[in-house]
Amino acid sequence: MKKILKFSLVLVVAFTTMNLHAGTVDFTIGVKKEQGKIVTFALENMISTIDLSIYDAEGKLIHSEKVNSKKNINRTYDLNALPKGTYFLEVESDFKISRYIISVIGETASLSTEPTSEIYKPTFVSKEGLVWVGLFNVDKSPVNIKIFDKDDNEVYDSKEVLDQNVKKVFDINYNNSEEYTFVVTDNDRTFTKTFGKR
Questions:
Q1: Spatial CA neighbour of 99 closest among 75, 119, 77, 117
Q2: Which of 3, 12, 114, 120 has the most C-beta neighbours closer than 10 Å?
């Protein structure tokens, strides 16, 4: 009975952690100033390292930098070198990836205040050979979870999951491989994490 109670408690804690993760606001962007082709914005409410990247409409990386601060910071980008067109500012934290539109029209540039897309990264929790996988799937897009053993053999395929809150628990104790790689695909993004047996 104690074992079942302990397992249930671990399960509740893991799912609570995943739900808190999904509701976490780990950064916000506030546009401060747009003057000509110079855009200034603030990263606020940061709780983790942030990767900033600018892509053109074809997905080619133009600029990237890593911001590591627990404080609010300002960033100013001079976009004079960019020709007329649509670009994307991608802001990636430990928890999510948000994309904002940068429009360059004539001699002006503007940055959208709301993200055009937001993808939450999956949460993985491992304890005593049990692995919990959770994902807040905002737009209920198709999510797929696959597990591969140490020799790259597929041992599990969730097929297409369309739930908003994806939660799965896997027991890797009773399988033959010493380690398993979990592959979560959401919105053409792939996230991987490898776990060994306890």
A1: 117
A2: 120
